[in-house]
UniProtKB/TrEMBL annotation:
Gene3D superfamilies: Glutaredoxin. This is Thioredoxin. It comes from the Archaea.
Length: 219
């Protein structure tokens, strides 16, 4: 799905609202997410039960439970979204979930990310890249001309749907985790991932032809 299509469906479902050019969660949906998050506070069993009630497949369930352990709001968003959408087509409605991260009250930095990317905290990547596989992770820095060039090239590349989820991580914020988990110590970096495992990695600015080749191989 494209970001535009995702957004349209979320408007239709009463998840998003707009006032002029400003888009935000509806009060009702934001309140539902807050209620679920509060209900799951300090109760991992309830959080796990909620995931199992809404999605199928043990591998997917385990990944969401892992994600909920480091990011409880993700499970609250999962529950609130499932209340508003037809969940019979699991792949379709779960694909909408990452978009909600753009409207969190305390979003992670995303000012250097391509427009199509979902900015995330690095400690969410192990689970997210298992749920949304295959995936491309873009790690960027401030005051970094190669990062700016690569971000623009990724934007251009992803104007055509690639069948690959695109996540962005602000390197300086998560330096220790990126080093420990993925041995990433510089940027810009691209991690081409399948089922949570790095399939290929590239450092520095890249030509569009290289990006397309790697994405085609990944997808």
């Amino acid at each position: 799905m494209t970001r535009a299509t995702d957004t349209e469906l979320l408007f239709e479902a009463g998840v998003l609202t707009a006032e002029g050019e400003d888009v935000s969660l509806t009060d009702a949906f934001a309140s539902a997410v807050d209620d679920y998050e509060e209900a799951f506070t300090d109760c991992s069993d309830d959080r796990t039960r909620a995931v199992r009630e809404r999605i199928d497949g043990e591998t997917l369930v385990e990944a969401f439970v892992e994600l909920g352990a480091v990011d409880p709001r993700s499970v609250a968003e999962l529950c609130a979204l499932s209340d508003r959408l037809d969940t019979t087509a699991e792949d379709a409605w779960l694909a909408l979930l990452p978009v909600l991260r753009l409207f969190r009250p305390d979003p992670v930095p995303g000012h250097g990310a391509p427009a199509q990317a979902i900015p995330v905290a690095a400690d969410c990547l192990p689970a997210l890249t298992r749920v949304y596989s295959p995936a491309l992770v873009y790690v960027w820095l401030d005051d970094c001309p190669p990062c700016e060039s690569l971000s623009a090239r990724l934007e251009s590349t992803f104007e055509t749907p690639r069948g690959v989820s695109l996540f962005a991580v602000y390197g300086p914020r998560d330096r220790a985790f990126l080093d420990e988990e993925y041995s990433v110590t510089a940027g810009p970096a691209l991690l081409f991932m399948r089922d949570g495992t790095i399939d290929a990695r590239l450092y520095g600015d890249q030509k569009g032809s290289v990006l397309r080749t790697e994405l085609e191989r990944l997808s």
